[in-house]
Amino acid sequence: MAKCPICKVEPANKAHKPFCSKRCADIDLHRWLGGTYAIPAVEPPDDFDAELEAALLEIDAPDEIH
Ligand SMILES: [Zn+2]
Q1: Other C-beta atoms lying within 10 Å of the C-beta of residue 41
Q2: 66 CA to centre of ligand 1 in angstroms
Q3: Ligand 1 mean position to 65 CA, how many Å?
Q4: Distance between CA 59 and CA 50 in Å, rounded?
Q5: Residues 12, 4: contact at Cβ < 8 Å?
Q6: Which positions ≥6 away from 26 have C-beta within 8 Å?
Q7: What is the mean pLDDT of residues 30-39?
């Protein structure tokens, strides 16, 4: 089965293909929207969730409102 193009760890999930999860699908979306955001290609499994969680939180946080 194809690996998720975002985390390159988990296999693609039927519900979210070609990604493994909504989380990775969201990351891909944000990558396109945000432009410069990049996921490390290799991440230790133990840190993986926390890393993505932090990245998503950072992305989801609204920019400074003026
Ligand atoms: Zn993934």
Answers
A1: 7
A2: 35
A3: 31
A4: 14
A5: yes
A6: 56
A7: 68
Distance (Å) from CA 60 to ligand 1 centroid:
18
Question: 44 pLDDT exceeds 70?
Answer: no
> Which residues neighbour 13 within 8 Å (Cβ) at sequence distance 6 or greater?
4, 19, 20, 21
In the chain, where are the structural domains located? Answer: 1-66
Q: How far is the CA of 12 from the centre of ligand 1 (A)?
A: 7
pTM over 0.70: no
> Distance (Å, rounded) from C-alpha 36 to C-alpha 41?
15
CA torsion sign for 16, 54, 38, 36 is positive
DSSP 57: H
For residue 30, the CA-to-ligand 1 centroid distance in Å is: 14
